């Protein structure tokens, strides 16, 4: 988010810099032409004055006046009067500048050695009646100094202005990005399951505030819909279970009535098995709904993962052995997570259950508890050498009732991984599926109890 | 066994009562908490099945009232409230077993029978004997007909639970709860395989099996 603030500051700097350059160029140009005009006007007035002297007092008077004028040393005002042969008669210049042609304005440089010399100057040349030529000019130095002053003033004021604009841009955008950051952070919290979170409103009712209000309204609706959906699935699972259970009870009674072996008994037996499958499915749906809704209801306790995993692995050992599958458990760290022991056990059992189901005879399953890839976390991995799940299906298999084509022949209701996913979310953990080459490796990353990640994760998941 | 069902759902009650009678028990029922408490206090019942959500009371009120008067008739709490906290609450307040509704009839009856026979419990028993099978709980040794049998710790626990409830049906759920401490049903029937393994060790080399399968319900250890 900082980058937006920096970017805005840079854009401000760029725009202000560009306009400062433009303004400087315009001011420079205007100043330049203004100064030239001033110089020309001054020179023109001087020339007119000298011509008046010439008219009134003749050439001698003019020479006299010029001598008076040039008595001041190092004067920026330049004069030279040459006779018909081009020899200077009076003035503070050694002669007319080289290459002077017809009368009129000219720009030239003063001769070497004179008052520092080779200074830029402008002047006007007028040919007088008897072949004398008069040049009146001025060194531009004084005027240039003024111009330099202006440019320097412009430079410093624009520098300050640029700094202020960049800082202001950064400040304004930081203010905005900070509020956006709040919205972002809370949105993240909500995505992580903390659906009760709301974005704080500011009192000024600006666009961001309206965005917050709209997002909050949207959340309100989503929450209502979610709650409705959850209640619905819980109600369905529960209300369907009750009559189904009665049906099962009646079948049990029927079974005990049909005393002798025979087709009726077998049919009733099969019906009971089917009823059990349905009941199991509803039970699984209820568990998922509870795990999803259970953020507030269930208090967390410290659960040591190794003993839970030992019991799970022990439970499945004989089944694995029947399929000649090597089932190993390696505990590298004694991980304690905060959570719900039974739900964790059920999720881990589902993973091992799946692994046993989808690993062919003679395969292997490795359950490992180790320090996580991220510091302060513990990874539980269940890796099998079975058929695996193509990576494009990884997301989908976490949904309810999802069964991949090749798994339809194995028993199961497509709810196992959905429950794992719900339980993992409830614990602020993360689930990743990886290619075990061959087979599937499911990695559950739990934040350690007591680690910072844990506090954050549980606050996210338990707070809602 | 004489059993009192305190439950207000007539359909559920009818089924439970019928099931209990099918299994040779004498079952009465009341649908009201106050009347239920009065009947239960008569002391003529071996087991009480108490629903938690009754029209007049929470079933737990009845259980606490009974315990307060020194009545220790075993109580099975039957409730739709199935969270771990609900179970713990029920068991800490005088309940002897807790079953979440809906549940299978076989499960209910198996649990009731176990409760009924626990009236004279083998308190701190160190030796269990079922037929020619002997378990030494301190030395953790098992012998059948004088022959020593090696069991893994979990197999020992499984056999111990079966032996403690010898003659009664124990369901898969009961085994999962008591031997593995899991309050959920795994997708695969892993218990069946554990029992098959135990049979290999306990029954295979002997003429009469001790572990019996009760179809649709569970298992029973009896001579």
From TrEMBL, chain B:
Residues recorded with modification 4-aspartylphosphate: 51
Keyword Phosphoprotein: yes
Protein name: Two-component system OmpR family response regulator
Residue stretches making up the OmpR/PhoB-type domain: 125-223
The entry's DNA-binding region: 125-223
Ranges for domain Response regulatory: 2-116
SMART domains the record matches: REC (SM00448), Trans_reg_C (SM00862)
Keywords of this entry: DNA-binding, Phosphoprotein
Pfam entry (one): Response_reg
Lineage: superkingdom: Bacteria
Coiled coil location: none
Ranges that cross the membrane: none
